[in-house]
Amino acid sequence: MTADPALAEGFDLRRLDAAFYADPFPVYRALREHQPVKRLADGSLFLTRWADLDRIYRDTRIFSSDKHKEFRPKYGASPLYEHHTTSLVFNDPPLHTRVRRLIAGALMPRAIAAMEPGLHALVGRLLDAVAERGEADLIEDFAAAIPIEVIGNLLGVPVEERGPLRGWSLAILGALEPVVTPEAATRGNAAVSDFLDYLRGLVARRRARPGDAATDVLTRLIEGEADGERLTEPELLHNCIFLLNAGHETTTNLIGNGLELLMRFPDQRARLLAEPGLIGTAIEEFLRYESSNQLGNRRAVAGTEVGGVAVAPGTLLTLCIGAANRDPARFENPDGLDVGRQPNRHLAFAGGPHMCAGMTLARLEGRIAIGAFLRRFPGYGPVGEAVRGGRARFRGFLSLPVRVA
Ligand code: HEM
């Protein structure tokens, strides 16, 4: 049965309703089937097919990540504007190449492997606390607590100073939604300013007393590459903020969404319990099925064509990762959850030169957190109402109450 064409016809990214936030997949399906390259009222295009996204992510000659043009009217001259336009993800070469090299160098397997014992210990402590209470909010008490500690460790933020990190991150990411209210903009701007003030102090302390560049990412970003490549002070500060934001809500949502999916699909939970070795493919399937990051953007800098639709230079494109990852042209039975799915070339981490630089770390966190939770509480189940995040770009829960005993 084909999807209702009216869902595709009526789709407006600037006017999303509660039903969409709860379950956008019927709308995504209708768009993919009837208007896979949909022109929105503002002239931008909304894309839902896997093959189109895959091509666009790779072709940086035509599709730019530079957001100066788009963000100037959205944020004005403000801390949010300065932050986003200095982050590597919203830039093209040369800034992107320079920062990416330093960040990728700092997220080397050796640095990540060094985090593994600490991660097991942290997850163990969180699980002990959950066991003691018999109930937990999977987000607040578990999923959100993990990435914040991991990135705190990555940047060497002293434990007692980590309190405000999550709030800053949520406020900055909240201001990336398709529609930004004045309150969300005010919160986002205040968060960037406070975060910058904090980081200036942290960087000064680290310059005075450098850490081990093999494992301490901040020291590595401060010192730069052996060949003299260095970040300017604003580049350093804004990309530290970006690292925290990039790795925080996305990974929280991977853990929360994965544990929720295992409640929704008891057959897949039983399978994973019987075959714990499937945890690696299970994580990929959670990323595909409920992608933490649902929407990406690019701007065409030259005229081209996508799926038979002419694309003029300057056109803004929204790439719907959530829809592409359920495309039947790429995935067999795309609306079914299969924890052993292989191959599974999803686009949850995007693709091409901007592909997520933290994916090894995110996968490790997901494997350890979800694997350990399931082993410890194989019969966990919902208690009370789950609350979704209510965002189009980042998909996850604000609250997910469960009982474990
Ligand atoms: C499940 C967790 C995660 C998901 C789903 C995710 C997703 C993504 C996506 C889709 C992009 C590409 C954005 C674009 O070009 O439009 C990206 C970029 C990036 N991510 Fe992640 N991410 C995750 C976790 C992390 C973590 C843990 C870190 C590091 C601590 C991280 C660091 C980065 C960085 C530095 C970039 C920018 C890369 C570039 O522009 O070259 N991410 N991520």
From TrEMBL:
Matches recorded under SUPFAM superfamilies: Cytochrome P450
Q: Which InterPro entries does the UniProt record give? A: Cyt_P450 (IPR001128), Cyt_P450_B (IPR002397), Cyt_P450_sf (IPR036396)
Q: Superkingdom of this entry's organism?
A: Bacteria
- Family statement: Belongs to the cytochrome P450 family.
- The name under which this protein is listed is Cytochrome P450
The organism encoding this protein is Belnapia arida
